[in-house]
Specification:
The complex is a heterodimer.
Chain A: H1 2-18, E1 21-25, E2 37-41, E3 48-52, E4 57-61, H2 66-75, E5 78-79, H3 92-97, H4 105-108, E6 115-121, E7 127-131, H5 143-146, E8 156-163, E9 165-166, E10 170-176, H6 179-190, E11 196-202, E12 205-211, E13 224-226, H7 230-234, E14 246-251, E15 262-266, E16 271-276, E17 285-287, H8 300-313
Parallel strand pairs in A: 1-2
Antiparallel strand pairs in A: 3-4, 4-8, 5-9, 6-7, 6-8, 10-12, 10-13, 11-12, 11-15, 14-16, 14-17, 15-16
Chain B: H1 3-10, E1 16-17, H2 20-23, E2 40-42, H3 47-59, E3 64-67, E4 84-87, E5 94-98, E6 103-106, H4 112-119, E7 124-125, H5 138-144, H6 151-154, E8 161-167, E9 173-177, H7 185-189, E10 198-205, E11 207-208, E12 212-220, H8 223-235, E13 242-247, H9 248-258, E14 268-276, H10 278-294, E15 299-302, H11 306-317, H12 319-324, E16 329-332, E17 335-336, H13 342-356, E18 360-365, E19 370-377, H14 384-401, H15 417-423, H16 426-439, H17 454-459
Helix pairs in contact in B: 1-3, 13-14, 14-15
Classes of the chains: A alpha+beta, B alpha+beta.
Bound molecules: flavin-adenine dinucleotide (FAD) (2 copies).
Chain lengths: ~325, ~475
């Protein structure tokens, strides 16, 4: 593995000299390759480096698949709290690079909340370490959380240390109701002490998931207990679309009223999946298809900062554009 | 015209303090060992005034040290002789509360505790609760990424902030929102110690107040046993809301001060709080008590009601002042370590204590590995402060050497610049300086704090300098 690490560092250094672009690819990549890009594959750079269940921390190589990660953790009755969607061979590196988080986001937090440290190769092929394995660490800027979502444009992430949590028992309930009522109800419920770990609206039903010991929900009017499969349907959400329709992901305030064309509401109301031909008029919209299309909704100032940061990490522009 | 005159022209009279007497209270933060009188202190009342101050200071090339409540423990707000202190305590309004959406939008000068007080009527609260919460500002919390007793379960400040409005040195406004795509700038602003921008508005996430909470107090005959017991609790799948450990010295001091019934003969004391729904808390409190008993606790008290729970916390909450009574001064360190190294680290600290001839009390956020050794000293004894600082630095290096870090929650400020050289190498520090330059190319925002110059680390012998050639040779060295 050390040899592979050195090779990756060499590949970056050479690309810097030869002015080539590198496309980092994790597992079963959904990334369209630019014609002139050279592949930098992470798939074989995998494996758990250290895991101490009682410290609630695991350190893995970035090419480790999510399924391997889940399995190792489950053996010790633990899990990653952010429930990343699994698309085939998704790697933890690709998931981190895309900052992908699942249904428990409003309740347990998002991917970056569980990142404690990273090891990177920057655009000069230098090995860098940020953060560490501690749950609390405020020494230096929080680069390891900042790079969550960087999509292979800043640095090659080689290792990740993640905070893990105990596996919990979860039960899902549903109630039949109109979407607009469900949005209000999911917000109301999130303000109570019921230990929620998911709430969503899909095809006429409001779904919610509860962790651990809790008052019996089936006493409530219209509530039925169902299995937990709905959370897999929504994460990753892959609906069958009509010809000409596109799938859009909208991030909104949790109390945002119903939006036309909604196929599903997730993450406590903050995530809306919309099918439409045209881009919905909304500040935080991502086209969701099998190609990697980053969203560009940054204001002028923010864009300048991101471009500045790219230069800091990747001065020779070895990695692809932001 | 001088910068002070320019500021006086632009702001209400009461907002610019420039006399010796007026500036004195701003000479230091809660790390009072370092002091410096600033050129002036400016206390704007509106965002627009903050913008004007920044523009004026930019024009005059005057450094700006942003200050919240000044409760920082790492000298992050230490003024510069030629700089102004930008105090944000008058920007203290809660702008919006939306109970349905569970958010509050606040100005940076709002005190931490005010938020929970303002939303209590809705059954909500703001989770991060540094011990300084009655005084410290939300702006300061964000800048330090502060934590409290509840961190292990509810996270640090970074986990509880949804968006920030920030001004750069030109007075230009940025919004960093959790919904933004791409690199997570919001995360990086948390803990940036006033070096990247001035935070002027914060959207906070609110949580429902847990229905119930119960505290389990357990006494142990050895530190090791106590540390093992903590491990066992976490291994069994319980994430306590608070998990605090004290050593013998701290137990005795706390009991002497607060008389809450702590067993003073114990070598180590554990306070473990579980919270959540009534059902869950009942299950968890019993399980915790069972696990701790099995792990060798020789005495256990489980709080039976709210009054008992609050009373049992009083000793821990007053541990710092309690220990402080034994000495004219004390110095609070803030390293983190893997829990498995606790017994070793405490032994090493005891050795260092002998070596330096200074007493130490240990209070420990056991759940997340955050150690707070309190070094007792007397500032009036010549040389004792310098000894204390060296002792502190040794402790932080020790934390790094066992796989931990030099600061869990207090920040680097000016205090831990040397220790940063132990934790980070040249290339990482270069990146940090690069990040700073992207946000603040003037270098006027809180200069000299949080990230050591490469020169400094080289002098300390932690960096390899080849033929006297330093990376970033064009950067000012001081
Ligand atoms: C806008 C968008 C739309 C998506 N749409 C779909 C979809 O419709 N269907 C679907 O199945 N999946 C989709 N995905 C999911 C995503 O591509 C995969 O789930 C990915 O995260 C799985 O990991 P991977 O290892 O296959 O990553 P890859 O697909 O190989 O890579 C994903 C991104 O991460 C970067 N990357 C990977 N590893 C590293 C590393 N170690 N260091 C730095 N950068 C790295 C890559 O350069 C790339 O930008 C989408 C993602 C995004 C961001
Ligand atoms: C008794 C006591 C107990 C404490 N307990 C804890 C604890 O349990 N956990 C913990 O984490 N800390 C603790 N602290 C440390 C301190 O309270 C925190 O660091 C707090 O967040 C500082 O807030 P402040 O408003 O006082 O900030 P200040 O001390 O005024 O400033 C701290 C830093 O933040 C920057 N800053 C402040 N406001 C802004 C802004 N609006 N924009 C940009 N930068 C800004 C300053 O430049 C400085 O670098 C404690 C301190 C004391 C005295």
């Amino acid at each position: 593995m050390q040899q592979q690490f050195n090779q990756m560092a060499e590949q970056i250094k050479e690309a810097a000299v030869d002015q080539k672009t590198l496309q980092i690819v994790g597992g079963g990549s959904k990334v369209p390759l630019k014609n002139d890009a050279e592949l930098l594959s992470m798939a074989a750079y995998s494996g758990v480096l250290s895991y101490e269940p009682s410290e609630l921390v695991i350190t893995v190589r970035a090419g480790t698949t999510l399924s391997e990660l889940h399995q190792v953790l489950a053996e010790k009755n633990q899990m990653v709290a952010f429930e990343p969607p699994e698309y085939g061979n998704s790697t933890i590196g690709g998931t981190y690079a895309c900052a992908l988080t699942g249904p428990a986001k409003p309740f347990r937090g998002k991917l970056r909340d569980y990142v404690l440290g990273t090891k990177l190769l920057d655009g000069q092929g230098r090995e860098l370490n940020f953060g560490g394995k501690m749950i609390k660490n405020v020494a230096g800027y929080d680069v390891s959380r900042m790079l969550a979502g960087s999509k292979g444009s800043m640095a090659l992430v080689t290792e990740l240390s993640l905070k893990v949590v105990p596996l919990v028992e979860e039960v899902t309930y549903r109630i039949e109701m109109p979407e607009c009522d469900a949005i209000v109800l999911m917000n109301q419920m999130a303000g109570t002490s019921l230990p929620l770990s998911g709430s969503a609206y899909y095809r006429g039903y409001f779904y919610y998931r509860v962790m651990g010991a809790h008052p019996k929900q089936t006493n409530r009017v219209g509530v039925e207990a169902v299995d937990n499969s709905i959370w897999q349907i929504l994460n990753p959400f892959k609906p069958v679309l009509q010809p000409g329709q596109k799938l859009w992901r909208l991030d909104v305030e949790s109390t945002n009223p119903c939006i036309d064309g909604t196929l599903a509401v997730g993450m406590g109301g903050t995530r809306r999946w919309i099918s439409s031909k045209n881009k919905p008029e909304h500040p935080y919209v991502t086209l969701w298809d099998d190609r990697f299309l980053p969203r560009h909704n940054d204001g002028k100032g923010v864009k300048k900062i991101k471009q500045g940061l790219k230069k800091v990490f990747d001065p020779h522009h070895v990695f692809k554009d932001l | 015209m001088s910068v002070i005159e320019a500021l006086k022209n632009a702001l209400p009279k009461a907002s610019v303090l420039a006399t010796e007497e007026q500036c004195r209270p701003y000479e230091c933060d809660a790390l009072s060992a370092y002091r410096e009188k600033p050129l002036a202190v400016v206390l704007p009342e509106t965002d627009d005034q903050v913008k004007q101050v920044l523009r004026i200071c930019k024009a005059y090339q005057t450094p700006v040290i942003t200050r919240g409540s000044g409760t920082g423990l790492a000298g992050g707000t230490l003024p510069l002789k030629n700089g102004i202190v930008l105090g944000l305590s008058k920007l203290n309004k809660i702008l919006k509360i939306d109970p349905l959406q569970r958010i509050a939008v606040v100005q940076p000068g709002v005190r931490n505790i005010q938020v929970s007080e303002a939303v209590r009527q809705y059954g909500l609260y703001y989770a991060p609760d540094p011990s300084s919460q009655i005084a410290c500002s939300i702006g300061g919390n964000v800048a330090e990424n502060s934590g409290g007793v509840h961190c292990l379960k509810y996270g640090l400040t970074v986990h509880n902030v949804n968006s920030l409005r920030v001004l750069n040195m030109d007075g230009e406004e940025y919004i960093f929102d959790e919904k933004d795509d791409g690199v997570d700038l919001l995360a990086m602003l948390n803990g940036s110690e006033g070096l990247l921008g001035v935070i002027v508005e914060i959207k906070l996430k609110l949580l429902p107040k847990p229905e119930a909470a119960q505290l389990v107090m357990a006494a142990f005959q050895s530190v090791n046993e106590c540390a093992e017991a903590v491990t066992a609790v976490l291994k069994q799948g319980i994430i306590p809301a608070g998990l605090e450990m004290m050593d013998k010295f701290s137990i005795q001091a706390a009991e002497d001060f607060a008389q809450v019934g702590y067993p003073t003969e114990a070598e180590a004391l554990l306070l473990c709080e579980v919270d959540g729904s009534h059902d869950q808390v009942q299950v968890d409190a019993k399980r915790v008590a069972d696990i701790l008993t099995a792990e060798g606790a020789y005495k256990i008290i489980v709080s039976q009601n709210e009054r008992e729970r609050v009373a049992l916390w009083q000793g821990r909450k007053n541990a710092f002042p309690a220990v402080g009574r034994y000495s004219p001064d004390y110095y609070c360190m803030d390293g983190t370590i893997p829990r498995s190294k606790l017994a070793y680290v405490l032994e090493e600290i005891a050795k260092l204590s002998k070596k330096y001839g200074l007493r130490v009390a240990n209070v420990f956020h056991a759940g997340d590995g955050n150690l707070h050794p309190l070094i007792l000293y007397d500032a009036n004894k010549p040389g004792e402060l310098a000894q204390t600082e060296r002792f502190g630095c040794d402790i932080l290096n020790l934390c790094v050497d066992v796989g931990g870090t030099i600061t869990g929650e207090h920040g680097v400020g000016v205090e831990k610049l040397n220790s940063m050289c132990h934790q980070y190498q040249g290339a990482e520090l270069e990146i940090f300086h690069g990040i700073k330059a992207v946000f603040d190319d003037t270098g006027l925002l809180n200069p000299g704090k949080a990230v050591p110059t490469l020169h400094r680390c080289a002098e300390l012998g932690h960096m390899h300098v080849h033929h006297g050639e330093l990376p970033f040779a064009h950067l000012e060295r001081f």
